[in-house]
Amino acid sequence: MEMSHSLAQDRLEVADRLHSASIHLLRHARRQDILSGQGPARLSALSVLVFVGPMTLGQLAAAEQVKPPTMSRIVAGLKRSGLGKIETDPEDARRVQIRATPKGERLLQQARQRRIQAVADVLGDLSEEQMRLLGEAAETIESAVRRRR
Amino acid sequence: MEMSHSLAQDRLEVADRLHSASIHLLRHARRQDILSGQGPARLSALSVLVFVGPMTLGQLAAAEQVKPPTMSRIVAGLKRSGLGKIETDPEDARRVQIRATPKGERLLQQARQRRIQAVADVLGDLSEEQMRLLGEAAETIESAVRRRR
DNA sequence: CTAGTTAATTAGCATTGCTAATGAAATATA
DNA sequence: TATATTTCATTAGCAATGCTAATTAACTAG
After folding, report:
1. Contact B14 A134 (CB under 8 A)
2. Looking at the DSSP assignment, which residues form a beta bridge with residue A100?
């Protein structure tokens, strides 16, 4: 019997390794973003707009976990770059609806493909079996995160 | 036979899911960092100093993938907070050796534990079998990243 | 010894985070 | 209805973090 490790300890060890692996993996992905000419906050907000759809500034701020004044400026930047569009809500004139422009969609998809290709490159020489393992792991992580949201 | 997916396509799909899962996982971890009272760049630089050891400003900048002027300011911040110490290199007076102070080590270890605990919390209700899977996945990712560095 | 190279810093810009204060619109209440 | 409160977004101002260009200091080569 293994007595030197408690179950809780094992969980912390796995959490530690997964935390570290995620950081190192994303470091490669993030490097590609320079090519888009946009900062990380704008790309991330644009990603929400593209994959979730148009929403108010407050909703976008909540989705990105930043305060409204911060998102107000990020959105202003997206508009300045022609990547986002601001429309007033006819239901409630206080609200503003933010949406990605076609240009914004194109830019985001390109940035996204560069990121994913970078991750794929890192995983380049792994076996089929290892790729299956990683695919399952990704699913497991996503479902765990969804439960905690 | 499955004809609609090439192997390369499968790899991109796994890369995509892993990329997404990593982002969502780290989002939980990152939220804990506010409690340390330090910004992300300082915490990350401090982490290198603690886990790799003292090094010159240029080496630290390279490790963190930022330019020297940026690291110069981050180190100034660490010093101001009493988390880092700057010593001149007796071999070469142009160089400065940066090291974490005991206070810096303590702060980093606390921040790190909070992060890892947050990840562990997300993984809280996974089975033993799933945890084993994630542990293996983390190892696989780390070894792949190491080969590309 | 002078010229070139290297290491770090300073100066100045843009982005991105915050809080506090303000403005504008909707909602609740007297 | 009129006023008070609440809600949504923006503005102003601060700090941190990224960059490039220019500077300073120190080492190295010729």
Report:
1. yes
2. A84
Report CA(B23)–C1'(D23) in Å, whole number.
Answer: 41
Query: Nearest to residue A48, comparing CAs of B105, B24, B126?
Result: B24
For residues A71 and A45, is the Cβ–Cβ distance under 8 A?
yes
Q: How far is the CA of A25 from the C1' of D30 (A)?
A: 47
Nearest-Cα residue of chain A relative to residue B141 = A21
DSSP B36: G
CA–CA separation, A48 vs A53, rounded Å? 7
Return the biggest CA–CA distance within chain B. 68
CA distances A34 to A38, A46, A115, B102, Å, are: 7, 15, 11, 36
State the pLDDT at residue A2.
52
Q: B97-149, pLDDT tens digit by residue? A: 999 999 999 999 999 999 999 999 999 899 999 999 999 999 999 999 999 87
* pLDDT class of A24 with cuts at 50, 70, 90: very high
Q: What's the pLDDT score for residue B35?
A: 94
Provide CB contacts within 8 A for A137, sequence distance 6+: B18, B21, B133, B134, B136, B137
A1 pLDDT more than 60:
no
